Amino acid sequence: MTKAEIAAKVAEATGLDKKVASTAIDEVMKVVKESLVNGENVYLRGFGTFEVKQRASKTARNITAGTTIVIPARKVATFKPGKDFVEQMSK
Question: Are 33 and 40 in contact (CB under 8 A)?
């Protein structure tokens, strides 16, 4: 499903114009991104949690070249679905 399809469904469900729904979705995604970049988790009750996790640095090998490189530590965004979401998916 694309963002345009989501906006169309939101517009249909709420009676909003598609452009307004699309703008609202863009703003929600912008707030979620900014929060994650700032190291804040985002909790959406009934849906799930977007979390920032720290990945440790690790050593990797390029088998074809026979070289070893170090992949630096980094932060990654993860999503953990909520209990209700998991139950609906398992039906």
Answer: no
N- to C-terminal Cα separation, the chain: 20
Rounded to whole angstroms, the Cα distance separating 8 from 18 reads: 6
Convert the chain into a string of H (helix), E (strand) and C (coil). Answer: CCHHHHHHHHHHHHCCCHHHHHHHHHHHHHHHHHHHHCCCCEEECCCEEEEEEEECCEEEEECCCCEEEEECCEEEEEEEECHHHHHHHCC
Mean pLDDT by 10 residues, the chain (91 residues): 94 94 96 96 94 94 89 95 92 85
Give me the count of residues in the chain.
Answer: 91
- pTM (two decimals): 0.78
* 76 and 56 Cβ atoms separated by less than 8 Å: no
